[in-house]
Amino acid sequence: MENRKIREIYDYDMIENDEFSLQEWYNMVMDKTPAELTVGDVCRMLRQKIFSVVAIGRAIEILEGDPFAGELFDGQLMENLYAGKEKYLCRRYDDIEKLLVNAELKALAYSWADEGSKEDYLKTIAAFSQRIAAYKAKAAEEVKV
After folding, report:
1. Is the dihedral of CA 127, 119, 47, 81 positive or negative?
2. What pTM does this model have?
3. CB 40 within 8 A of CB 75
């Protein structure tokens, strides 16, 4: 992953009036390298749909080590990744596909807080897998035409 700060990667300026927590957080994130981003940072970046390329790359890195990563609940990062910007997600579908296979296998043996959390996580993985399969099928059709 890159060693430049996010503000350098995107060539963005810091927000000068940072009296609101979101603006303060934005400036803090802008001053980090991708490797310094926490699970909470990445979850918020994906929810806010900002710095998507960096957020998706970092999310994949984190999820490779811990498919249940989350700041507020187990599996939060996977859920936020699923809700990320499609135009950037599709560039990483091969990497995400590998993640999903691993995550599903581990989810079956994981000690979930409750059965509902496990079901929600597995539904997210299934929906993500279906989205990737549909995208790849459509891309294959376009190549034929």
Report:
1. negative
2. 0.88
3. no
